[in-house]
Amino acid sequence: MRFGILGPTEVRLTGGRPVPVGGPRLRALLVLLLLTPGRVVTTARLIDGLYGADPPAGAGNALQAQISRLRHLLDAADAGGGTAGAVGDDPDGGTGSGTDDDVDGTADGSGGGMVTRHPAGYRLAVPPEAVDAHRFERLARQGRAALVSGEHERAGVLLGEALGLWRGPALADVLDAPFAAAAAARLEEARIAVAEDHAEARLALGRRREPTADLRTLVTDLRELVTAHPLRERPRGQLMRALYACGRQAEALAVYEDVRTRLADELGADPSPELSAIHLSVLRAALPVPGPDVPPAGDRGPSGDLPSAGDRSPPSGDGVTARAGVPAQLTPLVGRADELARIRGLLTGARLVTLTGPGGTGKTRLAVEAAAHGHDDVCFVELAPLTDGAAVPHAVLGALGLHQPGMLPTPGGAVPDPVARMVAALAERRTLLVLDNCEHVVEAAAALAAGLLGGCPGLRVLATSREPLGITGETLCPVPPLALPPPETPAAEALGFPAVRLFAERAAAVRPGYAVESEADAVLRVCRALDGLPLAIELAAARLRSLTAAEVAARLDDRFRLLSRGSRTAQPRHRTLRAAVEWSWDLLGEDERTMAGRLTVFAGGATLEAVERVTGLPDAIDLLAGLVDKSLVEVVGDRYRMLDTIRAFCAERLAEAGEEEALRRAHGEYFLGLAESADPHLRDAGQLEWLRRLDREYEDLRAAMHRAVLPPGAPGFPGSPETSGPAGSSRSLGSRGSFDPVFALRLLSALTPYWWLRGLRGEAAAPARRLLGRIGLHPPAGAEEEYALCVFLAASAGGYDPGLKPHVEAARSILAGLDGMPRQPFALVVQAVVLGLPDEDHHLRSIRRMDRLGPDPWTRALINFGLGYHWWSNGRPVEAERGFEAALENSRSIGDRWGTVTALTSLAELAIWRRDDGRAAGLVGEAMSLAEELGATTDLADLLCRRAELDVRAGDLDGARAGYERAAGFARRAGDPAALAGARLGLGEVARIRGDLTEARACYKAALAGCDLEGHLAEEVRGRLRIALGRLAEMEGDAREALDRHLSVLSGTAWRRNPPLAALAAEGLAGVALLEGDGERAAFLLGLGVALCGASAPDGPNDPDIARVGAGARSLVGDARFEAAHRRGGGLTVGRALAALDRIRAGGGLPSTSGR
């Protein structure tokens, strides 16, 4: 079957029989697939090509329906029917729905026949030779090569055959499709270039013949070409030479006069030096026979960049002009002062400087700016249009204004060596030669630079390339993206960073009066998501003509479709973000492309070891080096990483190759191995080293965890729109694959110590909850312990939803049934945080069971923690302190900083409870130093609250407020709602003590909203909040509300094993007694608080509430009665003190003073 797009769309069977194609939408779909036959065209590109930037809501279904029609049409015709046109008839383009079965034609979704389905899109399974445009491209390339090598007859045949494939304007019957105009323009440009080459071959043949009908026909053909393209100078020169060869000198001169007038009138320009030289030779009758005129331009076929024929060269002369070809800039350079200074500095000492970097970083712009302000002569040469390295010397000759021998041959027909001619012209000059965009002709550019530098001592070369030239004497100057503000930078300061300034300036150009301050957060998201790449930022800013910055940011998951409308005058590779990256991709070898695609599985870059293990490529070192050289990968320390935009593009290619599932599996296994290797070291002196290693790999550990937990394509899946921060539109990663609960539970378990030590409980809770949602109540066989840990992690971030209760009970039973330590010892820590202390008998049984496990210091530390909290809950502070001291010694003996922090914090809390503020301050300070080393955000939030509490007691309310605010910040970072609620409670206490009762109530309300969950920690904060609200009511004079608030703390039984909370309740009730005028009862209850705390000081050192209530009670009853009542309460044992509170709770109010 043969396909034609060089004219109206045409499909013919092998015997020439035509196949009707159907309606315009179906023809457009066929042509879009034919532009890249045999290759997968992504679904996004198909929709974009058929419907434009704003497709209708049903575009996906409509595309499926069209694919189904096209498959049936082609398969029926290929089978010999040839009458399947009715199947494809769809004059309106079709908006019906289709299903995967409709589209695939097979149950497995792989597709069959000529149109096959792929995970990323669709492929038309025909060879390029079956499509006339691709045959045209091959013939054009072969014809040009023959022309350059002097095989004029062969060139004439090949180029004539190429032109014979055209049946009319390219894509003639689908030009209304959004994709068609650009593709048709590229094909038409290629046709003109081939027509000019064909004319050159025919002219060259005229040297061996008398002017014949062939030459006269050529004159006619060239007149048609000139009429159609009156400003193209190459066919004008060919027409002048053909007319001269026919003896028609006057007509040749008239052709020149016509173009001179047109150029002056329409462009304000003069003819090129080459055309002027031909004119002069005609005037002098000195033009020899026609010779080859092959410009340094090429063709890349229907899907590639094409040369801009007729490009102007600088005025000719014996050497270069002062600023030959340096393009003037229409916009100011933003944020590149340092880079520009560095380039100019390098050029003072180096003769060859190469600006390297990925596409879109602004290498050309920097080269232009560096060249525009020097003192030497400058020649700027744009190499991007070239497709053949052999054309590089000719391009430089033209830019230098030196006559190309092909346009004006020497009398003997000899062609001087172009490098020798340039050396002769430049040997005595101080010149800066700028070679722009060398990467696709890098070998030729390198050879030319070496030859010129060796022969011209006054010459310096400034090159731009995505790949180094790789010659001796080259100095590389990498061009980074524009600087971005660090994540925590205030918005006002962030707006001054170069990436944001560029966005603001370009946005103001398309939306006059635009104020970036009004959308600062959205603009920052856009700039960060686009890696600070200037091209991408400019394309995004251009979208503000019709979108807000927030809308742009929200659509960057499909950045290549969004950023597809660049300047019409820009080089094709800079008009869209996709084209900029595709230009680099096309320069890679197959193995390099494979490596680039596989690297996208890494979310945060990778070490060489990880790359070798995960990608499985034997030559990983060399392939990485190639990608680094070509600016698709950058090296940061010992890690290789891609910019997000490049990663998104390469991920699409990985999806097209069908490798994403295997790569995700290899990636997950590698990082599971790393986490399990790190696990034991996180409980010994190697903590910091291994934490830092896991920090470096955390983006990938998190990606592996999320891929293991989330259903593919779900919100939050790495690469989905919600998480496209590292991956952009790489959401194809994870589109397939099966759920492995055992693997997911193992990885969750292995990461638990890291999360806990770094204070990232929120990071642990989110995947744990999602994983439980997929597993349900029945753990997979062999992973019961890991399931139990998963449950407690889900409940650990400050509390859990009541719906989690069945899971919690199941997990409690699993751990209770173990004879020894669980495989992940941190499971016991997490369980204790979630559930608090178990009942006394169960707690002691657990401790005895653990005591049998041997002398391991980490296990012994857990045992001693358990004993400490057991004795504390039973009101025996001395024994509790011994337990915590022993745990501290165990942790220090093995270098476990986290265990040391936990022991110090427990001792500090005990000291605060016992009102030993001096000891508590020292312990808190030591614990904070270690917690800061660990970066343990949850622990830091807790310790800051403890220190702020001490500041309140010391009367430093400003210091206390600052401490609680810092604690709130750490709690937010940790994702711990209970810790955040505790910090807000502290801020409310500071406001209340200062007398700002409105602010205090607002803080309490916010705190209460943040701990409306199940669990030990949430209940602890709620209890303290009730007491705070009771004190607030007391200060507002509402005794009834105050009493109810304090009594609510004594509901249930948990308070009986929480002496600190019971002491706070007693002290709160003392305030109620004072409000009711009962000074003795207030003193008794204050004494009760002392008994529950085990403190010796009767009034408590500097506690503002105790001091306030105590002073009020003394004023009512006098010192003697106050002291007696206080001793009566303070002299009780902990058990009798709890019993006294229980009687108050049972009575529903304070007893009368008659019972004292």
TrEMBL record:
InterPro entries: AAA_22, BTAD, HTH_77, OmpR/PhoB-type_DNA-bd, P-loop_NTPase, Sig_transdc_resp-reg_C-effctor, TPR-like_helical_dom_sf, WH-like_DNA-bd_sf. Transmembrane segments: none annotated. Residues 1-126 bind DNA. Residues 724-734 have a biased composition (Low complexity). GO terms for biological process: phosphorelay signal transduction system; regulation of DNA-templated transcription. The keyword DNA-binding applies. One of its GO terms (molecular function) is ATP hydrolysis activity. Keywords: DNA-binding. SMART domains: BTAD, Trans_reg_C. Residues 1-126 form the OmpR/PhoB-type domain. Residues 81-118, 289-323, 711-734 are annotated as: Disordered. Belongs to the AfsR/DnrI/RedD regulatory family. This is Putative ATPase/DNA-binding SARP family transcriptional activator. It comes from Streptosporangium sandarakinum.
